[in-house]
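FAQ
Q: What does a multi-component entry look like?
A: The components come first, one per line:
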Amino acid sequence: MLEITDLTVTYPGGAEALHGVSLSVPTGRVTTVLGGNGAGKTSLLRAVGGLLPQYRASVRTGSVSLDGEDVTALPPWQLVRRGLAQVLEGRHIFTDLTVRDNLVVGGQGLPRREVADAVERAYEQFPALRDKATTSAGYLSGGEQQMLAIARATLRLPRLLLLDEPSLGLSPLMGERIATAIADIAAQGVTVLLVEQNARLALSISEQAVVIANGNVVTACPAVDLLDDDKLSAAYLGGA
Ligand code: ATP
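Then the predicted structure of the entire assembly, as C-alpha cells:
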C-alpha cells in the first residue's frame, strides 16, 4: 500500500504546490489523479518518485510510505530497489537503440535468461513492439514509443508504477490500447498511480479517483462514483 500523509511540497521561492495532501493508494489497482492545469498532479508524482530535488523542490511536511516504510527522503535509485517504476514527462527511451535493446536495457542487472523471458512478456503485452523489435526506437510512432516506455519500465514487474499522462498526444485508439495495457499491468498485482487528462478513459480502468485542485485533495472516491454521478461528472469531467 502506498500511503501519502499530510504532504506539503514547496518549490524554490516558496511556491507551495501541495498543501497537506493525504491519500491511500490501494495495492494492485489503478488510482487516477485528476485536476486542472497547475493543480499539483505532477508535483504529487514527483514527490512519490523522489524527483523533487531535481526541481530544487522539497517536502515541507508529511510523508510518503510504501508498505509501511517511510520512503519520503529516498532518491529514485533506492526507490527502484523497493519496486518503483515511473514513466514521467517525456518518454525517455533511447531513440538510437532498437526496440529490443531498449527493453534489454530495462532488464539490466537481471540474469540473461530472465531478461529474455521479460522481453518476451513485453512483446506479448505489446505485439506492435515485437513487429518492430529491430527498428530504432526513434522511428516509432508516438503511441509505440509510449508502449515501449511502459514496457521498459515494467520489465521487472514493479510493485508501484507512476504514469504521467500516458495518452497525451495519442490517437483515441492508441490511448485505449495504452489504457488496456495499464489495466493488464495492474491485474498482475502492480499498484498504479496515474495522472491523465483523458479522465473518462482513465477512470474506466481505475478503482479510485482522486481530484486535486489548488494543491488540495477535493474528492477521493471509487472511480465508478465519479463516472456515474451526473453532478460529479459535470463538475470534474467537464462533460467530456
Ligand atoms: P499540469 O497539468 O499543468 O502539468 P499539474 O496539476 O501537474 O499541472 P504541477 O505541475 O504539479 O501541476 O504544478 C503545481 C504548482 O507548482 C503550480 O503552481 C506550478 O506553477 C508549480 N510548479 C511546478 N513545477 C515547478 C517548478 N519546477 N518550479 C516552480 N514551480 C513549479
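Q: Is there any commentary attached?
A: Sometimes. For this entry: The mean pLDDT is 92.
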